[in-house]
Specification:
single chain, alpha/beta, Oxidized Rhodanese, domain 1, 6-stranded mixed beta sheet
Length: 126
């Protein structure tokens, strides 16, 4: 994990594998900042949707013992929202390096749209 100091606060950049391990150990909460349409096409199981268009840093769950990690498609939007969270008063926030694209490239499990059924199915790539 990379750490960057932003005005005395901490911005962390996690790899897909680091996030996967933290989620499996129930040590992280993943917030997806993509649009509802992007989320519906595919997302990490258990992630919470808070689209960038409606993003409210004050509405995020409290970090507590679980780390908050933001994710988008490529890390551009999640990094922007991470800076917004720090500006809103949080002492630290993390985001996923490479976004959902990196998650899929790492062949980690996710939920994807199943067009023939009109539903969703779990994709286990490991």
């Amino acid at each position: 994990m990379k750490r960057e100091s932003v005005d005395g606060k901490t911005l962390e950049t996690w790899t897909a594998q680091e996030l996967h391990e933290a989620l499996e150990a129930r040590k992280a909460v993943l917030i997806d900042v993509r649009s509802p349409a992007e989320y519906m096409l595919g997302h990490v199981a258990g992630s919470l949707l808070m689209p960038m268009a409606d993003f409210d840093a004050k509405a995020l769950p409290e970090e507590g013992k679980k780390r908050l990690v933001l994710m988008c498609g490529s890390a551009m939007r999640s990094e922007k929202m991470a800076h917004k969270v720090l500006s809103a008063g949080a002492e630290r926030i993390a985001h996923l390096e490479g976004g959902f694209g990196a998650w899929k490239e790492a062949k980690l499990p996710h939920v994807a749209a199943d067009f023939p059924s009109g539903g969703q199915s779990r994709v286990n790539q490991d």
